[in-house]
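Figure 2 data, in text form.
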Amino acid sequence: MKAVDKLEDILANSENFLHRMHELGAEPHQQKELRRLEAAVDTLSRLGVAEADMAVVWVPGAFEIPMAAGHLARSGKYAAVICLGTVIRGQTPHFEYVAGQCASGIAAVARDTGVPVIMGVLTTESTEQAIDRAGGKMGNKGADAAEAAVEMADLLDQLS
């Protein structure tokens, strides 16, 4: 998959993408990322954002999210940037480094650019907790992030 995909291509092929990931033995947490993305897109559409005004950018991991978010925020093309991802605790301190730097980087991009950059990166103890936040018991945090993005973009517009 390319780094930047057309949104309609991702959504049109989401079932096939999930099936391919399953056949390749992908982890369940990868499937939930697509569920959170779909929920974010659905919510943005419901709130009046045209799909033509949305872009999806894929990065290798959570640590790289702030860099991509910074490029998008500085481009002047977007009223907000939504960062989705998951960092699951393991047996090493890697979790703290990645999760902390990801969160700090996202906050820095928002502060430095004045563009709302929404922290939709999950930090969980297990894959099960991540799945619960992708349409399970805990709702869908992709939808929550999309709502926050629209609210913040509207707020900043009113404050200008």
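Caption note: Confidence is low (pLDDT under 50) at residues 10-29.
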